[in-house]
Amino acid sequence: MKNVVILISGRGSNMQAIVNAQIAGANIAAVISNRPDAAGLAWAAERGIRTAVLDHKQFASRESFDAALIDLIDGYAPDLLVLAGFMRILTADFVNHYENRLINVHPSLLPAFTGLNTHQRAIDEGVKLAGCTVHFVTAELDHGPIIAQAAVPVLDHDTAGALAARILVQEHQLYPQAVAWFVADQLQLIDSKVSIKAAANTDAFLRSPSF
Ligand code: GAR
Protein backbone atom coordinates (compact mmCIF):
# COMPACT_ATOMS: atom_id res chain seq x y z
CA MET A 1 0.00 0.00 0.00
CA LYS A 2 1.36 3.45 -0.89
CA ASN A 3 0.46 6.52 1.12
CA VAL A 4 -0.91 9.34 -1.00
CA VAL A 5 -1.20 12.86 0.41
CA ILE A 6 -3.28 15.34 -1.61
CA LEU A 7 -2.87 19.12 -1.39
CA ILE A 8 -5.80 21.35 -2.34
CA SER A 9 -6.74 25.01 -2.15
CA GLY A 10 -10.37 24.97 -3.20
CA ARG A 11 -13.24 22.75 -4.30
CA GLY A 12 -10.95 19.78 -4.84
CA SER A 13 -12.77 18.15 -7.73
CA ASN A 14 -9.56 16.46 -8.88
CA MET A 15 -9.00 15.20 -5.34
CA GLN A 16 -12.55 13.81 -5.43
CA ALA A 17 -11.90 12.08 -8.74
CA ILE A 18 -8.77 10.45 -7.31
CA VAL A 19 -10.57 9.34 -4.13
CA ASN A 20 -13.58 8.08 -6.09
CA ALA A 21 -11.33 6.05 -8.38
CA GLN A 22 -10.53 3.75 -5.43
CA ILE A 23 -7.08 3.08 -6.83
CA ALA A 24 -5.74 -0.33 -5.90
CA GLY A 25 -2.71 -0.04 -3.63
CA ALA A 26 -3.34 3.64 -2.81
CA ASN A 27 -4.09 4.75 0.73
CA ILE A 28 -5.31 8.35 0.77
CA ALA A 29 -3.41 9.26 3.92
CA ALA A 30 -4.52 12.90 4.13
CA VAL A 31 -5.98 15.88 2.33
CA ILE A 32 -4.29 19.14 3.26
CA SER A 33 -5.33 22.68 2.35
CA ASN A 34 -3.60 26.03 2.67
CA ARG A 35 -7.04 27.66 2.83
CA PRO A 36 -9.30 26.97 5.83
CA ASP A 37 -12.40 27.51 3.67
CA ALA A 38 -11.48 25.02 0.93
CA ALA A 39 -14.69 23.16 0.10
CA GLY A 40 -12.80 19.95 -0.61
CA LEU A 41 -11.86 19.58 3.06
CA ALA A 42 -15.42 18.86 4.18
CA TRP A 43 -15.93 16.45 1.29
CA ALA A 44 -12.86 14.46 2.33
CA ALA A 45 -13.67 14.56 6.06
CA GLU A 46 -17.18 13.25 5.37
CA ARG A 47 -15.55 10.20 3.82
CA GLY A 48 -13.35 9.53 6.83
CA ILE A 49 -10.16 10.88 5.23
CA ARG A 50 -7.85 12.75 7.56
CA THR A 51 -7.73 16.45 6.77
CA ALA A 52 -5.51 19.31 7.88
CA VAL A 53 -5.17 23.03 7.24
CA LEU A 54 -1.97 25.03 7.15
CA ASP A 55 -2.93 28.63 6.49
CA HIS A 56 -0.16 30.33 4.52
CA LYS A 57 -1.36 33.70 5.81
CA GLN A 58 -0.05 32.74 9.25
CA PHE A 59 3.52 32.61 7.96
CA ALA A 60 5.92 35.48 7.40
CA SER A 61 7.67 33.96 4.41
CA ARG A 62 7.23 31.40 1.68
CA GLU A 63 10.21 29.51 3.10
CA SER A 64 8.76 29.21 6.62
CA PHE A 65 5.37 28.09 5.25
CA ASP A 66 6.93 25.45 3.02
CA ALA A 67 9.10 24.17 5.89
CA ALA A 68 6.03 23.80 8.14
CA LEU A 69 4.14 22.16 5.28
CA ILE A 70 6.90 19.58 4.87
CA ASP A 71 6.68 18.77 8.59
CA LEU A 72 2.91 18.37 8.37
CA ILE A 73 2.98 16.26 5.21
CA ASP A 74 5.79 14.01 6.40
CA GLY A 75 3.71 13.12 9.46
CA TYR A 76 1.60 11.08 6.99
CA ALA A 77 4.66 9.30 5.53
CA PRO A 78 3.77 9.99 1.91
CA ASP A 79 4.99 7.84 -0.95
CA LEU A 80 3.31 10.25 -3.35
CA LEU A 81 2.33 13.89 -2.97
CA VAL A 82 -0.45 15.04 -5.30
CA LEU A 83 -1.10 18.72 -6.06
CA ALA A 84 -4.78 19.04 -6.91
CA GLY A 85 -5.54 22.68 -7.49
CA PHE A 86 -2.99 23.68 -4.84
CA MET A 87 -2.54 27.32 -5.77
CA ARG A 88 0.85 28.07 -4.23
CA ILE A 89 4.24 28.56 -5.79
CA LEU A 90 6.54 26.10 -4.06
CA THR A 91 10.14 26.73 -3.01
CA ALA A 92 12.97 24.72 -4.53
CA ASP A 93 13.63 23.21 -1.08
CA PHE A 94 10.07 21.88 -0.96
CA VAL A 95 10.14 20.51 -4.48
CA ASN A 96 13.54 18.89 -3.98
CA HIS A 97 12.36 17.26 -0.75
CA TYR A 98 9.68 15.40 -2.73
CA GLU A 99 11.74 14.80 -5.85
CA ASN A 100 10.20 12.14 -8.12
CA ARG A 101 7.19 11.70 -5.82
CA LEU A 102 5.42 15.03 -6.41
CA ILE A 103 2.91 15.41 -9.25
CA ASN A 104 0.59 18.15 -10.49
CA VAL A 105 -2.26 18.68 -12.92
CA HIS A 106 -2.21 21.87 -14.95
CA PRO A 107 -5.05 23.05 -17.22
CA SER A 108 -3.05 23.52 -20.42
CA LEU A 109 -1.01 21.51 -22.86
CA LEU A 110 2.37 22.24 -21.29
CA PRO A 111 4.79 23.76 -22.03
CA ALA A 112 2.20 26.19 -23.44
CA PHE A 113 0.36 28.46 -21.02
CA THR A 114 2.14 27.99 -17.74
CA GLY A 115 0.85 30.08 -14.83
CA LEU A 116 -2.64 31.45 -14.33
CA ASN A 117 -5.66 32.26 -16.56
CA THR A 118 -4.69 29.47 -18.93
CA HIS A 119 -8.14 29.13 -20.49
CA GLN A 120 -8.62 32.80 -21.38
CA ARG A 121 -5.06 33.02 -22.66
CA ALA A 122 -5.62 30.00 -24.92
CA ILE A 123 -8.78 31.61 -26.31
CA ASP A 124 -7.02 34.94 -26.80
CA GLU A 125 -4.19 33.26 -28.71
CA GLY A 126 -6.69 31.56 -31.01
CA VAL A 127 -5.25 28.09 -30.47
CA LYS A 128 -7.47 25.27 -31.72
CA LEU A 129 -6.37 22.72 -29.12
CA ALA A 130 -6.28 23.15 -25.38
CA GLY A 131 -6.14 20.54 -22.65
CA CYS A 132 -4.46 19.43 -19.47
CA THR A 133 -1.17 17.93 -18.38
CA VAL A 134 -0.17 15.72 -15.47
CA HIS A 135 3.52 16.07 -14.72
CA PHE A 136 6.20 15.56 -12.14
CA VAL A 137 6.94 18.83 -10.38
CA THR A 138 10.33 20.48 -10.63
CA ALA A 139 11.47 23.79 -9.19
CA GLU A 140 10.48 25.66 -12.36
CA LEU A 141 6.79 26.62 -12.24
CA ASP A 142 4.54 24.32 -14.30
CA HIS A 143 7.47 22.43 -15.77
CA GLY A 144 8.74 18.94 -15.20
CA PRO A 145 8.55 15.55 -16.86
CA ILE A 146 5.16 15.03 -18.50
CA ILE A 147 3.25 11.89 -17.53
CA ALA A 148 0.09 12.29 -19.59
CA GLN A 149 -1.89 14.87 -21.55
CA ALA A 150 -5.44 15.22 -22.83
CA ALA A 151 -6.47 17.53 -25.65
CA VAL A 152 -9.82 19.22 -26.19
CA PRO A 153 -10.93 21.56 -28.98
CA VAL A 154 -11.28 25.29 -28.50
CA LEU A 155 -14.64 26.11 -30.04
CA ASP A 156 -15.83 29.26 -31.75
CA HIS A 157 -17.25 31.66 -29.18
CA ASP A 158 -15.79 29.64 -26.31
CA THR A 159 -15.69 31.32 -22.93
CA ALA A 160 -12.99 30.65 -20.36
CA GLY A 161 -15.62 28.95 -18.19
CA ALA A 162 -16.86 26.66 -20.95
CA LEU A 163 -13.33 25.70 -21.95
CA ALA A 164 -12.35 25.11 -18.31
CA ALA A 165 -15.33 22.79 -17.83
CA ARG A 166 -14.43 20.83 -20.99
CA ILE A 167 -10.84 20.45 -19.81
CA LEU A 168 -11.86 19.55 -16.25
CA VAL A 169 -13.74 16.48 -17.50
CA GLN A 170 -10.44 15.28 -18.94
CA GLU A 171 -8.47 16.17 -15.79
CA HIS A 172 -10.79 13.89 -13.84
CA GLN A 173 -9.92 10.99 -16.16
CA LEU A 174 -6.23 11.65 -16.56
CA TYR A 175 -5.19 12.40 -12.98
CA PRO A 176 -6.53 9.22 -11.30
CA GLN A 177 -4.92 7.21 -14.11
CA ALA A 178 -1.56 8.88 -13.48
CA VAL A 179 -1.83 8.25 -9.73
CA ALA A 180 -2.68 4.60 -10.43
CA TRP A 181 0.40 4.24 -12.64
CA PHE A 182 2.62 5.79 -9.98
CA VAL A 183 1.23 3.57 -7.25
CA ALA A 184 1.70 0.50 -9.42
CA ASP A 185 5.33 1.48 -10.15
CA GLN A 186 4.52 1.91 -13.81
CA LEU A 187 6.26 5.26 -14.29
CA GLN A 188 9.92 5.32 -15.27
CA LEU A 189 11.92 8.53 -15.43
CA ILE A 190 14.65 8.32 -18.03
CA ASP A 191 16.62 11.46 -18.95
CA SER A 192 13.85 13.63 -17.43
CA LYS A 193 11.24 11.97 -19.63
CA VAL A 194 8.51 9.66 -18.43
CA SER A 195 7.93 6.28 -19.92
CA ILE A 196 4.90 4.27 -18.84
CA LYS A 197 5.51 0.59 -18.56
CA ALA A 198 1.81 -0.24 -18.60
CA ALA A 199 1.03 1.81 -21.70
CA ALA A 200 0.70 -0.55 -24.64
CA ASN A 201 -0.24 2.33 -26.93
CA THR A 202 -0.44 6.10 -26.87
CA ASP A 203 -4.16 6.12 -25.98
CA ALA A 204 -3.09 5.52 -22.40
CA PHE A 205 -1.22 8.77 -21.86
CA LEU A 206 -2.42 10.90 -24.77
CA ARG A 207 -6.16 11.39 -24.60
CA SER A 208 -7.68 13.03 -27.64
CA PRO A 209 -11.39 12.45 -27.18
CA SER A 210 -13.76 13.31 -30.00
CA PHE A 211 -16.38 16.01 -29.42
C1 GAR B 1 -7.93 22.50 -11.96
O1 GAR B 1 -8.43 22.89 -13.20
C2 GAR B 1 -6.41 22.40 -12.02
O2 GAR B 1 -5.93 21.96 -13.26
C3 GAR B 1 -6.01 23.82 -11.77
O3 GAR B 1 -6.91 24.30 -10.79
C4 GAR B 1 -8.13 23.59 -10.90
C5 GAR B 1 -8.45 23.01 -9.56
O4 GAR B 1 -9.72 22.45 -9.55
N1 GAR B 1 -4.66 23.91 -11.32
C6 GAR B 1 -3.83 24.89 -11.64
O5 GAR B 1 -4.16 25.86 -12.29
C7 GAR B 1 -2.42 24.75 -11.08
N2 GAR B 1 -1.50 25.56 -11.81
P1 GAR B 1 -10.15 21.46 -8.39
O6 GAR B 1 -9.86 22.15 -7.07
O7 GAR B 1 -11.61 21.28 -8.61
O8 GAR B 1 -9.37 20.19 -8.57
Kindly summarize this structure in a few lines.
This protein is an alpha/beta fold and about 210 residues long.
Task: Explain the layout of strands and helices.
Elements (H helix, E strand, L loop, with lengths): L1 E7 L4 H8 L5 E8 L5 H8 L4 E3 L8 H13 L5 E4 L8 H6 L4 E5 L11 H8 L3 E8 L9 E8 L6 H24 L3 E4 L2 E4 L9 E2 L4
Parallel strand pairs: 1-2, 1-4, 2-3, 4-5, 7-10
Antiparallel strand pairs: 5-6, 6-7, 8-9
Helix pairs in contact: 1-6
Structure description:
The structure is a single chain. It contains six helices and ten strands. By secondary structure, the chain is of the alpha/beta class. The protein folds into two domains: 1-98, 3-Layer(aba) Sandwich (Rossmann fold), CATH 3.40.50.170; 103-211, 3-Layer(aba) Sandwich (Rossmann fold), CATH 3.40.50.170. β1, α1 and β2 form a beta-alpha-beta unit. α1 (13-20) runs parallel beside α6 (160-183). The longest helix has 24 residues, at 160-183. The radius of gyration is 17 Å and the shape is globular. The model has no long low-confidence stretch (mean pLDDT 96). Bound molecules: glycinamide ribonucleotide. Residues 8, 10-14, 84-85, 105-107, 132, 168, 171 line the site of glycinamide ribonucleotide. Glycinamide ribonucleotide binds next to α1, β5 and α6.
